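Hi Y.,

Following your request, here is the sequence exactly as I used it, all 163 residues.
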Amino acid sequence: MPADPMSLINSPLPSSLMWMTMRQGSPQPVGADALAEGKWVLIGVPGAFTPTCHARHLPGFVDNMKAFADRSVRVAFMTTNDVFVTDAWGKANNVGDDVLMLADPDNSVSMALHLSLDLSAAKLGMRTQRFAMTIDNGVITSLAIDSGGSFEKTSAESVLAAL
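Below is the corresponding structure, written out as tokens. Let me know if you'd prefer a different format.
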């Protein structure tokens, strides 16, 4: 994988990527093949229940699910939390089956995509940068990355405007 995440654009999503999600009440692995068909927006966030992610970022996508569905785009959210926290976060935000909630607890997906964020100085460890990635039939077609606590480039409204 290239060191510059922007060089991922127009490349296939690496087939080696592996997340965890909850299915029928138990943790299950989910590979990159789950995002290989159709058009997806993969949203990476530093952590579930964190101020920006919980109060503003994920709710914007939940509120705009009809607009994504109208464009035939599915949404997946990825956190650097364990699968139980990620699942609870989805339930707390009433995401239902419309949003695929993906856990990257060991930060391996973020590292493979060169989208890791070291927040060790704040005692938060390795996290995921806030990003929005469009995947069309397994190919990464766009990538937006926000800095700090901002989510201007990766908000639901910005992602919809870029589709």
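The chain is about 25% helix and 30% strand.

Thanks again,
Q.
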